[in-house]
Give the backbone structure.
Amino acid sequence: MLTPPRTVVRRDAGLYALEQALRRRGFAHVAGADEAGRGACAGPLVAAAVVLAPGRRGEIDGLADSKLLTPAARERVYASVRDRALAHRIVVVSADEIDRRGLHVCNLAAMRRALAGLSPAPEYVLIDGFGVDGLGVPGLAVWKGDRVAACVAAASVLAKVTRDRLMVELDGRFPGYGFAEHKGYATAEHQAALSRQGPCVEHRFSYVNVAAASGRSASPPRSRRPAAEAGRADGTGSAEIGIREPMGRPDPIRGTVGVALDEQLRQPALLGKDVVMEGGWR
């Protein structure tokens, strides 16, 4: 039996070349996945997965790595991806969940959940930076994937815009930290605010700088979060976060790990459950 020839895709072949090559090999639905907020010391982690439509419909004007776009351009691309993608899902993981389970565990689980929620299901997966096992389909970790593959770039925009909106909302609820400006990353201004007023419930107490500011750096990482802040008012679960659907959609659903923002709004569940995604399909 003859071995099929290798497919070689040049990095300068364009943002859509890798997906086109995979489709020629018989993978009709190629998904891209990316996250936002992994390096932040406050706020949620957001993972997104996208399957773009084949052909011209799948080409998004202005699509690029979210970090290379202006905020206004990201908003335009976000709307186009939501409108034109074949499938998309977004999963939100709270700071409390990150403290309890660990960042890497939450990152992998959120990626799996976002990809598992796509319909049609992906036949091949491209992930920015690192591999994720347990997907049930072949995949590839792509270095700087958000600058190489269109579906990964689309996922990066969905994750980034969703998280930025969340941080702006949190800035109104927790003033004085500058969440709307630095989005929870450890800038000099953010560190000064931490030193001045201590961390709030949306900080990640498993992070060294937050633990030091809280005076709990000698405690084990998972016990640094104050008990009064680790749960809701009824004493159960994680502190609430919210996602607001843009452009006149209903009030935000509150939850710990993710939300469903389809036509029928559903209450979110913990990361191990099945109803923690935002998205839709065309």
Q: What stands out?
A: The two ends are 40 Å apart (CA to CA).
